[in-house]
C-alpha cells in the first residue's frame, strides 16, 4: 500500500512527488511515457523563475533527478482507471493494480486536432503537432502554423530557424499569445499572417503534404496555398477520460478542485494542466504540485 500514487510525471506530478517524499510518504510516480510531460516538446522556456533561458528537456531532467534519492518509486505504466474504496484507492494500469491511501492526478493535457479532411491522412507526412520534434525535417520549406495562442506563435518563431518562410493562420484578427511573443513574431521577417481564416482541408500527393485550402470566415471566400509542412497548435484537451466515472470533471473534461487541489472524492487530488483553471504554465503546475503533496500528507496523518 502506497501513501500516495501520483499519475503523470510532468512538472506538476514531479513537484507533488518531491513534496510528498520530503514529508516521508511512500510515493509511486506512475508515468506512461518519458518523465517531463509537455516540457519534453518545448525548445526554450523563458518564464521559469531562476532561469533566463533553459530548454524544456533540461528543466525536466533537473526536476526528475532528485526524486530517486528521495525514494520516489518511478513506475512505467498507463493508468486506465481509479477505483475509490474509501480509505484505499485502486490505481489500475494495463497489467497491474496498485493500492494507495491517496491519489494525485497530474495527467496534463494533449494537443487538439483540427478535424479537417487530410489531417489524419497526412499525420507524420507533413502534418505535425510538435515543432521541436519535427522542425529540423523541414529545412528550406514554406511552413504553415495553425492557431493564435502561445504555442502557435512560439513554435512559429522556433521554426524560422529551419524554414524558408512561416505563415501563421488564425481564425480572428488578433492573436491570443502573450505580448512578448506577438512582438517577436511581428518583427520576424520570415513570418507572415493570414487573418480571420481557418484551414478547411489539407492536401497532398501520394508522398506528403503539398498545401491547404483556407476559408476566410468573414467573407466565406476560399483560397488554396502551397506548404511543405503544417504545424497545428489549436489548443489542448484534458487527459481525464480515465476518471470519467468518478464524477470529478466539468462538461469539457477539466477536473474540478478547490484551492487545496481536492476533488469531490476524499483523498483524490488533481493538479497542473488537467485541472480546471485559468493559467496553464510550468510555474502554476509546480505550485499545484507543492500544495497537493502537502495535502496528501495532511490527509494521511488526519486519518491515522
Ligand atoms: P504535462 O506536462 O502534460 O504532463 C502530464 C504527464 O502525464 C505526461 O508525461 C503524460 O505522459 C502523463 N500521463 C497522461 N496520462 C497518463 C496516464 N493515464 N497514465 C500515466 N501517465 C499519464 N509553459 C511555460 O510555463 N513556459 C513555456 O515556455 C511553455 N511552453 C510550452 C510549449 C508548448 C508547445 C506547449 C504545448 C506547452 C508549453 N507550456 C509552457 C505549458 C506547460 O508545458 C504546461 O503547462 C505544463 O507542462 C503542464 O504540466 P503538467 O504536469 O500538468 O502536465
Ligand atoms: P490556447 O491558448 O488554447 O490557444 C489555442 C489557439 O488556437 C487560439 O488562438 C484559438 O483561437 C485557436 N483555435 C482553437 N480551435 C481552433 C480551430 N478549430 N481552428 C482554428 N483555430 C483554433 O492553446 P495553446 O497555445 O496550445 O496554449 C495552451 C496552454 O499552454 C496555455 O495556457 C498557454 O499559455 C500555455 N503555453 C505557454 C507558453 C509560454 O508560456 N511560453 C507557450 C506555449 C503554451 P482563439 O484565440 O480565437 O480562441
TrEMBL record:
<keyword id="KW-1015">Disulfide bond</keyword>
<dbReference type="GO" id="GO:0004791">
    <property type="term" value="F:thioredoxin-disulfide reductase (NADPH) activity"/>
</dbReference>
<dbReference type="InterPro" id="IPR023753">
    <property type="entry name" value="FAD/NAD-binding_dom"/>
</dbReference>
<protein>
    <recommendedName>
        <fullName>Thioredoxin reductase</fullName>
        <ecNumber>1.8.1.9</ecNumber>
    </recommendedName>
</protein>
<feature type="domain" description="FAD/NAD(P)-binding">
    <location>
        <begin position="2"/>
        <end position="289"/>
    </location>
</feature>
<keyword id="KW-0560">Oxidoreductase</keyword>
<keyword id="KW-0285">Flavoprotein</keyword>
<dbReference type="InterPro" id="IPR050097">
    <property type="entry name" value="Ferredoxin-NADP_redctase_2"/>
</dbReference>
<dbReference type="Pfam" id="PF07992">
    <property type="entry name" value="Pyr_redox_2"/>
</dbReference>
<dbReference type="GO" id="GO:0019430">
    <property type="term" value="P:removal of superoxide radicals"/>
</dbReference>
<keyword id="KW-0676">Redox-active center</keyword>
<comment type="subunit">
    <text>Homodimer.</text>
</comment>
<keyword id="KW-0521">NADP</keyword>
<dbReference type="GO" id="GO:0005737">
    <property type="term" value="C:cytoplasm"/>
</dbReference>
<dbReference type="InterPro" id="IPR005982">
    <property type="entry name" value="Thioredox_Rdtase"/>
</dbReference>
<comment type="similarity">
    <text>Belongs to the class-II pyridine nucleotide-disulfide oxidoreductase family.</text>
</comment>
<dbReference type="InterPro" id="IPR036188">
    <property type="entry name" value="FAD/NAD-bd_sf"/>
</dbReference>
<dbReference type="InterPro" id="IPR008255">
    <property type="entry name" value="Pyr_nucl-diS_OxRdtase_2_AS"/>
</dbReference>
<keyword id="KW-0274">FAD</keyword>
Amino acid at each position: 500500500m502506497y501513501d500516495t500514487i501520483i499519475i503523470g510525471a510532468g512538472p506538476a506530478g514531479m513537484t507533488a512527488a518531491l513534496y510528498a517524499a520530503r514529508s516521508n510518504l511512500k510515493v509511486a510516480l506512475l508515468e506512461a511515457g518519458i518523465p517531463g510531460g509537455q516540457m519534453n516538446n518545448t525548445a526554450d522556456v523563458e518564464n521559469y523563475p531562476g532561469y533566463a533561458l533553459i530548454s524544456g528537456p533540461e528543466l525536466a531532467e533537473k526536476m526528475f533527478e532528485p526524486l530517486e534519492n528521495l525514494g520516489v518509486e518511478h513506475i512505467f505504466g498507463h493508468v486506465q482507471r481509479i477505483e475509490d474504496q474509501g480509505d484505499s484507492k485502486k490505481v489500475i494500469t494495463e497489467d497491474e493494480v496498485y493500492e494507495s491511501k491517496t491519489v494525485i492526478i497530474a495527467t496534463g493535457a494533449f494537443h487538439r486536432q483540427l478535424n479537417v479532411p487530410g489531417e489524419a491522412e497526412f499525420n507524420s507526412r507533413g502534418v505535425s503537432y510538435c515543432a521541436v520534434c519535427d522542425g529540423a525535417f523541414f529545412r528550406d520549406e514554406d511552413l504553415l502554423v495553425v492557431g493564435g495562442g502561445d504555442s502557435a506563435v512560439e513554435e512559429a518563431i522556433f521554426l524560422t530557424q529551419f524554414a524558408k518562410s512561416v505563415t501563421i493562420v488564425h481564425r480572428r484578427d488578433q492573436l491570443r499569445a502573450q505580448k512578448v511573443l506577438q512582438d517577436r513574431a511581428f518583427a520576424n521577417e520570415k513570418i507572415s499572417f493570414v487573418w480571420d481564416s481557418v484551414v478547411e482541408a489539407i492536401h497532398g500527393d501520394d508522398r506528403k503534404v503539398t498545401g491547404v485550402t483556407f476559408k476566410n470566415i468573414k467573407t466565406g471566400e476560399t483560397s488554396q496555398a502551397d506548404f511543405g509542412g503544417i504545424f497545428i497548435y489549436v489548443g489542448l484537451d484534458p487527459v481525464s477520460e480515465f476518471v470519467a466515472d468518478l464524477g470529478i470533471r466539468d462538461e469539457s473534461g477539466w477536473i474540478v478542485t478547490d484551492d487545496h487541489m481536492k476533488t469531490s472524492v476524499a483523498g483524490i487530488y488533481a493538479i497542473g494542466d488537467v485541472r480546471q483553471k485559468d493559467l496553464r504554465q510550468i510555474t502554476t503546475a509546480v505550485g499545484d504540485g507543492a500544495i497537493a503533496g502537502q495535502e496528501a500528507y495532511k490527509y494521511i496523518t488526519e486519518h491515522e
